[in-house]
Every structure is written in structure tokens, then in C-alpha cells.
């Protein structure tokens, strides 16, 4: 009889516990739905954070899959895989570091808010929301205008603009690596404006060379110039993907360094709202430049593959345009990761001002 009573008590306890957990889960879901309905930006913010935080993991998985595929092919040739090249230029490392910095800053923001109440809490929340609104406006602008017009500016002009914007941020950062990558990309595209397709029959090439040798002696320097002038469609495609990967990696590296300097090494105080507006200009300039480069790469590809069939040329053109769009997306997502960094910076500045 005692055993029967014990079983009844245990079963009743399990039912109560299960029912309680189900009720909590139901209440939790209803609460999240109410929050989402009352705050139109709630779902948007949640989706954005999920997308940016998992970006480096997504890129790493894509790179590992490509490594496995290449290992099966047993090839020693350098591959035009964006993810692998992006990692070679330390883009993935800087993106992961920026994500960590962003997550740590978000934790600090929430911890500090939890320590306040009353008027102080409301004032700080209003300040943080004003910073968030600037970032949200930038995200909305990106969604409404996915294809931004690229700036037709030379490497020197882009370098000048970046330097001025970094100075305006009041951080001691110089965009040397990014400027170098941009100049290198512009240089080979400009050299390639007179690309001559070399995908012709080998026999006709040899005959032409023989005739030229008979007519006049060849100058070795002229041969070198000719080699520089002519690239195969495969070479142009490889250079295009590699340039996009390098430039994007340098953009992410620059944003990572800016985030660290905002937290630890500002030359002088500047309101976080003003810094957010400058960062919008900075990332917009980066995105425009990448978009401009990808269009120039497709032009070079079209010239180099003028005698190729559409089924050979079109996949390469589509790939370059796709990676160009992906590059701008990575830069925009990295920009969104800077939001908690600016919010922490604002909190630190506010605390210093509050001290007697």
C-alpha cells in the first residue's frame, strides 16, 4: 500500500512538472509574439544579429567544403575559390575577431543596463536607441537599393577619401593595406583594357610568330610587353576573384581595427552618433568601390573571352558578379557588428563625464 501511494505521488509530481514547463514555454512564446507585435524592429534586429554572427562560420564551412573537393581532384593549381582566398588574406580571422568583439560589447551593454533604474536608465536607453536608429536606417537603405552605383574613382581618390573619413572618426588608423589592394586591382584592370584574346589555334599562332621573326628581329622587351598585354580568360577570371577576395578582406580588417580603436585608442572624444554617421560613409565608400571593381572585372572578362562560347563565358561572368554582391554584403554585415561597439563606447564616455 505504501508503494502504491509513493507511485501515485511520483506520477502526480511528474504531471505537475511537465504541465508547468509546458505552461512556461507557452507563456514565453506568447511574450515573444507580443514583443514582436509591439516593436516592428524586433524581428528585424533578431534576424540581423543571427545573420551577422553566423557569417564567419558560414564562410569557414564553405572554405572547408571546397578544400575537400580539391583534395579529391588531386590538383596543385591555384584555385579561384572566393572563400579560400578570403581566408588566405586573413579576412575570415578579422571577421571572427570582430564578431567576438561585438558579442562582448553587447554583453557589456546589457550588463550595464541591468545595473541602472529610473531616470538614468531611461536616458541611457534613449541614447542607445538613437545610435541603433542610425544603423537601422543604413540597413533599410541597403535593402531598398541593393545595386548601388559604383564610384568611378581612381585608387588615389579612394585612398584620400578613406584617410579623411578615418581622421574624422578621431581614430589613429591608416588604410595602407586596403589602399594597396585597391591600387593593385585598379592597375591590372587598367593594363587589361587592351586585352587581346589569345585563345586561338596554336598552329596559326606559330605561323604568325615565324613570319614576324622573318620580317624583323624580335626585341625581348617587346615580347614582355606583349605578355603583359595578353591574358587568357582563365587568368582574368582568377585575378578578378582574387582581387575581390583581397579587397573585401582588407575592408573587414579595416573595420575590425576601427572597432578596437573606438574602444581603446581614440585620440579625442567624439559622440557615438557622429561616429556612426561617419562609419556609414566609410562602409558605403567601400561597397561602392567593390561594386565598381566587379563591373570592371566583368568587362575585362568579356573582352578576354570574346571568342568563347556563351556556356563558357557566362558562368564566369555570373560568378564574378555574385562574388561582388557577396563582398558588399560582408562589408555591410561587418558594419552592423559595430553597433554594440559604439554603444559601449558611448557608455564609457558617459561614465567619465559623470565622474566629478
Automatic annotation (TrEMBL):
It comes from the Eukaryota. Pfam families: DUF719 (PF05334). Residues 199-229 are annotated as: Disordered. Residues 200-229 have a biased composition (Basic and acidic residues). InterPro entries: DUF719. Keywords: Phosphoprotein. PANTHER family: FI01459P, PROTEIN NOXP20. Belongs to the FAM114 family. This is Family with sequence similarity 114 member A1. It comes from Macaca fascicularis. The gene is FAM114A1.
Amino acid at each position: 500500500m505504501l508503494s502504491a501511494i509513493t507511485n501515485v505521488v511520483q506520477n502526480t509530481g511528474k504531471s505537475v512538472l511537465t504541465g508547468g514547463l509546458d505552461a512556461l514555454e507557452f507563456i514565453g512564446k506568447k511574450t515573444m509574439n507580443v514583443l514582436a507585435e509591439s516593436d516592428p524592429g524586433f524581428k528585424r534586429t533578431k534576424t540581423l544579429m543571427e545573420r551577422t554572427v553566423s557569417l564567419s562560420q558560414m564562410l569557414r564551412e564553405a572554405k572547408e567544403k571546397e578544400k575537400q573537393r580539391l583534395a579529391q581532384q588531386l590538383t596543385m593549381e591555384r584555385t579561384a575559390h572566393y572563400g579560400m582566398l578570403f581566408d588566405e588574406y586573413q579576412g575570415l580571422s578579422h571577421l571572427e575577431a570582430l564578431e567576438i568583439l561585438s558579442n562582448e560589447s553587447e554583453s557589456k551593454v546589457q550588463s550595464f543596463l541591468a545595473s541602472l533604474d529610473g531616470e538614468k536608465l531611461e536616458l541611457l536607453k534613449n541614447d542607445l536607441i538613437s545610435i541603433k536608429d542610425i544603423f537601422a536606417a543604413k540597413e533599410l537603405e541597403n535593402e531598398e537599393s541593393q545595386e548601388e552605383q559604383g564610384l568611378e574613382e581612381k585608387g588615389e581618390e579612394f585612398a584620400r577619401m578613406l584617410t579623411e573619413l578615418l581622421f574624422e572618426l578621431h581614430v589613429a588608423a591608416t588604410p595602407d593595406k586596403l589602399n594597396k589592394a585597391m591600387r593593385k586591382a585598379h592597375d591590372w584592370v587598367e593594363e587589361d583594357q587592351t586585352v587581346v584574346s589569345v585563345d586561338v589555334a596554336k598552329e596559326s599562332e606559330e605561323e604568325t610568330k615565324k613570319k614576324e621573326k622573318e620580317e624583323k628581329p624580335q626585341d625581348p622587351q617587346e615580347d614582355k610587353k606583349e605578355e603583359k598585354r595578353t591574358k587568357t580568360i582563365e587568368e582574368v577570371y582568377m585575378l578578378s576573384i582574387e582581387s575581390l577576395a583581397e579587397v573585401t578582406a582588407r575592408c573587414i580588417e579595416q573595420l575590425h581595427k576601427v572597432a578596437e580603436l573606438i574602444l581603446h585608442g581614440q585620440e579625442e572624444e567624439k559622440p557615438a552618433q557622429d561616429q556612426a554617421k561617419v562609419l556609414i560613409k566609410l562602409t558605403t565608400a567601400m561597397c561602392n568601390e567593390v561594386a565598381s571593381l566587379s563591373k570592371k572585372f566583368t568587362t575585362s572578362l568579356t573582352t578576354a573571352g570574346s571568342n568563347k562560347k556563351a556556356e563558357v563565358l557566362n558562368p564566369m561572368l555570373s560568378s564574378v558578379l555574385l562574388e561582388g554582391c557577396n563582398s558588399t554584403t560582408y562589408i555591410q554585415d561587418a558594419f552592423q557588428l559595430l553597433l554594440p561597439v559604439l554603444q559601449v563606447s558611448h557608455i564609457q564616455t558617459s561614465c567619465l563625464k559623470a565622474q566629478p
